[in-house]
Automatic annotation (TrEMBL), chains A, B:
Taxonomic source organism: Jimgerdemannia flammicorona
Gene Ontology molecular functions: 5'-(N(7)-methyl 5'-triphosphoguanosine)-[mRNA] diphosphatase activity; RNA 7-methylguanosine cap binding
Cell location: Nucleus
Protein name (record): m7GpppX diphosphatase
Keywords: Hydrolase, Nucleus
């Protein structure tokens, strides 16, 4: 399959309400059944690094990402799955979720150094938008791991920045902001967003291989 | 020279005022003489892509980054140097700078597609913090260029997000927010920030090569 063209999307609150939220609601629940299995302990139980179930509002399960070999510290990659099932993405976060977000940060920053020896200030803890599935989850990687996970602007948001935005800037920051992200043309959202592909653009894509260099001037 | 350890820094407004701003003021003016030469046309004149001098408040010079060969569109990399000399970094931006930021965005998004055939929604336009020099400048790259410039969270900020934060969230967003970034231990700011390196930590760094794998359990 040839690489797809990708475009920078500006998702205003209006576009979220009119296009993205209906899309999220249309995604089949079966897509996140594996998350519920992990939360309930019917799957992945032996892989769990930390299970914080003291309070369903702030609780979560921490487990290795499937891309990590669980050995090489430079490519350390964990995922946090929150227990509560009512947060679909970054867009849903409000001041009421600060105890959850702080609990994740504080416990991850205590457990990962103790278990793996990677210090808290050598971790990247971040959230994807768009995420690959709509049950709220958080990525934890070693700062040395730059080639693997997508940590680029236009896709990723540092958990610390998210907490700061909600706590110190505006409680409804993520309902009011415009979120910018890179979307491939094969993403199911792409067509719904109706990004115009001009005739000239399509033509230039068809001949892209012959056009990816500028002629000498 | 061995690779340096890097740490995630949380720069609160207080830390900016007490540590970072004095550091910026202490950097010699000679470091940005090359910028003034480019703005005045006494250097790099033949490389300039666009010179917008209609209004000194909103004007800028657009020129290829020294890392770009000026041919390969997938690695397109331009830099915007603003004409005004009173903005040192992202931290200084307020509502009064919106006309400048919008002018840069709008003109870059018109000129780059016309001159290079890379469409506006295939560009990443972003600001570094910490920047490598303290005269306000903006990076413009092709979205396909991911290996070269640092486009990661904890270093880069999309211009569109910056405009949105100031315009729709809070005019003093960049004076009130905590900025998170990755800093190497050899950066001159690192020691000033007084990030604690524990004895245990230093020891683990000294033997890092022998410790970058977890033993089998």
């Amino acid at each position: 399959m040839s690489p797809q063209n990708r475009h920078m999307i500006a998702e205003t609150p209006e576009i979220y309400k009119m296009v993205v939220e209906p899309y999220i609601k249309s995604t089949p629940a079966s897509r996140i059944q594996w998350v519920y299995n992990a939360l309930e302990g019917t799957a992945e139980a032996e892989r769990v690094v930390l299970r914080d179930e003291a309070d369903v509002e702030t609780g979560f399960v921490l487990l290795p990402d499937s891309k990590w070999d669980c050995k090489t510290l430079d490519t350390l990659y964990l995922q946090v799955l929150v227990l509560r099932r009512d947060i679909r993405s970054l867009r849903d976060l409000t001041r009421s979720h600060l105890p959850l977000l702080r609990n994740v940060r504080d416990r991850v920053c205590a457990v990962v150094p103790a278990k793996y020896g990677v210090q808290a200030d050598e971790l990247r803890i971040f959230i994807h938008y768009q995420p690959s599935y709509y049950h709220f989850h958080i990525h934890v990687t070693s700062m040395r791991y730059i080639a693997g996970p997508n940590i680029s602007i236009g896709q990723s948001h540092l958990l610390d920045t998210v907490i700061d935005n909600i706590e110190h800037i505006a409680g409804d920051y993520y309902q009011r902001c415009t979120l910018h992200y890179v979307l491939g043309e094969r993403h199911p959202l792409f067509e719904r967003l109706g990004v115009p592909l001009s005739a000239e653009k399509r033509e230039s894509e068809e001949t892209a291989e012959g056009k990816n260099m500028l002629g000498d001037k």
